[in-house]
Design a protein that fits this description.
By secondary structure, this protein is of the alpha+beta class. It folds into five domains: 69 residues, no CATH class; 93 residues; 91 residues, no CATH class; 41 residues; 183 residues, Metallo-beta-lactamase, Chain A. The chain has 18 helices and 22 strands. The strands form three sheets. It has an eight-stranded mixed sheet, with no helix packed on it. A seven-stranded mixed sheet has the order 12-11-10-9-8-20-21. The longest helix is centred in the first third of the chain and has 26 residues. It is globular and about 85 Å long.
Length: 681
């Protein structure tokens, strides 16, 4: 088998990912099955990935036993700890408080090295240290748990007081963080804030200043990867600084390696940069010894090194997107070789770029769907139009950073900044244009889409083993067309009621057949959450917005119609979406909305309403308070420990820490997504 290391690393990484998601008891028979496959396939090509799978299971078990479980055993304890604030610290919901990752360096007087997630602690800058009391808890079982574990975070901490400051840390990572911040400030000096935020994200990996509008537009245009420093940025910078004709000069190779390592450190070592940096360093090492370099083998080696550093690393979204994109690019390169002899040079160049963008998008599609990210049908066009601008943008950004270090060249820096801002304006215009095209935001049901992609992948494997891979494209096209037809039919009439926003007081977004109704409560954080949810789910047309706040104001949502519950003088019923009803009640300082979908009724309320006759519903989407006026069979909530938890007599409780939803299928049972039954302690 060619590229044995790449195949071994593929089996290793995939089994680490599987082991992180599967129950421990399932991993043992799975490892035994792969071990049996190694013995049974010794003379076949599949024994190498099977061997990688066995090693992946074994290494994951050892890593969990030595590094994860001892840390998780601390859950439930209240400790006195000395902590260092990490670089992801951001403003919390409470004034003068922060949230982010803390590194515990001392635990109850003993040295330690434990990363914890803390939702609220006294305001402090990255690198500052303090001692305090914390109550350690297990991580919430939500969609972000595995991503946190891939960062080495296995516990969360609740701040319990006794704050005492300590001298700031002198670790080089914080010096590099401050250098990155100064670079962002230098870029902002001569440019508009939005343009400076864009180039700071592209060049330095500083996404803290990006606006929600830019994030949404880049995602919808299928070019969100431009805002995260990745292999594209590393390769462009390496090519700009060191032309290919000097690649065999040892001095140039050493300088190139130094620049790549420095850039990796400067950007904060995100997974995408780590992957690209390791691949480039391995390539440089090969050139140094005049050995042939294989990108797939180097990529496999990078995946193996990252997986050895942290067995949960394959769970990182950036890891999955980065490596899947590389596989897509490699497949495109192989197909492009076959097209080169049949097409003129100019047409081949355009076709090659389009093929690369299409296959990179196809290979990253499962990751985007699995994690609920925006899927765009215009990604190929967006990449073709924006990628030619990346090289001059990065070059001008480097020039601005270099010139800003020399005050006497301020006029030149100002001129270069003007050119950079002009190019960024063109880039943003292209992105906004692509984001406005039909199909820019696709709504793909996650489970069904992943099932279809799995069937297509299995079909490709069958054709590959049968030696007739050329027959696969028409078969795959027919299967995909059938899957789309069936998917559209199965999605018709489905009603989804999702709780979106802050844990203690979420909004409800009701969607059906490309239309939406928003029941709003809360403030600016909920408004942003609702807009992001609608953007991720295909931008359904918002036909109605209901404001449940006691003091209604501008919701900030583009809805055809808006109702203020506080202005409701008597109960009223409204026809919404396709055959649904919405009953609106208001009394005193409380408001209540009841959605009727056939025989099912789902309620959402604000405040504590007192009605003359209790309302019977199937599900109550609860917030910080409940009322005897609403009798619910099931209560769905997002707050971890709501104050009413011990006072309810509902038959069932469902808890979801992310974005739980109630799904109503015509003629079928009611389903709870991203929520689990909750047992009162």
């Amino acid at each position: 088998m060619k590229r044995k290391l790449a195949w071994f690393a593929l089996g290793f990484a995939l089994t680490e990912l599987a082991a992180a998601n599967l129950p421990p008891l399932v991993c043992v028979p799975a490892a035994a099955l792969f071990a049996f496959a190694v013995l049974g396939l010794r003379k076949r090509s599949l024994h190498i990935p099977a061997l990688g799978a066995v090693c992946g299971f074994v290494y994951f078990a050892v890593f969990a036993a030595l590094f994860v479980r001892p840390v998780q055993a601390l859950a439930g304890q209240t400790v006195t700890a000395a902590v260092t604030v990490q670089t992801d610290a951001a403003a919390a919901y409470e004034a003068y408080h922060m949230r982010g990752t803390l590194l515990i360096t001392e635990l109850n007087g003993k040295p330690a090295h434990i990363r914890v997630q803390c939702a609220e602690f006294p305001a402090a800058e990255a690198g500052e240290r303090f001692t305090a009391q914390f109550t350690l808890r297990t991580l919430k079982n939500d969609r972000y748990r595995l991503a946190k574990q891939s960062d080495g975070v296995y516990l969360r901490a609740e701040y319990a007081g006794s704050y005492s400051p300590l001298p700031a840390s002198r670790h080089p990572v914080f010096w590099l963080y401050r250098l990155r911040q100064r670079g962002s400030t230098a870029l902002k000096r001569w440019m508009p804030a939005d343009s400076a935020a864009l180039i700071s994200a592209m060049l330095l990996g500083d996404t803290s200043r990006l606006s929600d509008a830019d994030r949404d537009a880049f995602s919808a245009a299928g070019v969100a990867h431009l805002l995260a420093v990745s292999g594209l940025h590393v390769s462009l910078l390496a090519g700009l600084l060191f032309p290919r004709k000097r690649r065999f000069a040892h001095t140039a190779l050493a300088a190139q390696a130094g620049v790549i390592v420095g850039y990796m450190l400067l950007t904060g070592l995100p997974v995408s940069v780590l992957r690209a940096g390791l691949v480039f360093l391995l390539a440089i090492l090969g050139h140094w010894f005049l050995q042939p370099v294989d990108l797939l083998t180097s990529t496999g080696a990078a995946a193996l090194l990252l997986g050895l550093q942290n067995a949960y690393m394959p769970c990182d979204w950036g890891f999955q997107l980065s490596f899947c994109a590389v596989l897509g690019v490699q497949c495109a390169a192989r197909l492009a070789k076959q097209l080169k002899t049949h097409l003129p040079a100019r047409i081949f160049h355009l076709a090659s770029n389009a093929l690369t963008a299409a296959l990179a998008a196809l290979f990253t599609l499962p990751v985007l769907v699995a994690h609920g990210m925006t899927v765009s049908a215009v990604g190929v066009l967006g990449n073709l139009l924006t990628l030619p601008l990346m090289e001059p943008l990065l070059l001008l950004g480097l020039a601005v950073l270099g010139l800003s270090c020399l005050p006497f060249l301020a006029p030149v820096c100002h001129m270069v900044s003007f050119l950079l801002a002009l190019l960024l304006k063109i880039l943003r215009g292209i992105v906004v244009f692509c984001a406005s095209l039909p199909g820019a935001r696709l709504l793909l049901p996650a489970r069904y889409t992943l099932f279809v992609l799995g069937v297509l992948a299995a079909l490709a494997l069958v054709y590959y083993l049968a030696g007739s891979l050329r027959l696969y494209p028409p078969a795959a096209l027919c299967c995909a067309a059938l899957a789309v037809f069936m998917g559209v039919r199965m999605q018709q009439g489905i009603v989804t009621v999702a709780l979106v926003g802050t844990a203690g007081n979420p909004c409800a977004v009701i969607t059906q057949d490309g239309q939406a109704v928003v029941v709003f409560r809360g403030g600016a954080a909920n408004r942003r959450a609702v807009k992001n949810y609608l953007a991720r789910h295909g931008e359904p047309a918002c036909t109605l917005a209901v404001d449940l706040r006691a003091t209604p104001g501008d919701i900030g949502l583009a809805a055809d119609r808006t109702l203020n519950a506080a202005a409701q003088t008597a109960p009223a019923r409204y026809e919404v979406l396709d055959g649904l009803t919405l009953d609106l009640y208001h009394k005193g300082s409380g408001s209540l909305v009841v959605l009727g979908a056939g025989e099912r009724h789902i309620a959402l309320m604000s405040g504590s309403i007192k009605l003359d006759t209790p309302v019977q519903v199937d599900v109550l989407c609860a917030a910080g308070a409940i009322s005897d006026s609403v009798q619910a069979e099931t209560i769905l909530f997002t707050a971890e420990s709501p104050p009413w938890l011990g006072d309810t007599d509902a038959a069932q409780l469902y808890y979801g820490s992310g974005t739980p939803a109630v799904v109503l299928r015509p003629g079928a049972a009611m389903i709870f997504e991203e929520a689990e039954p909750y047992a009162v302690q």
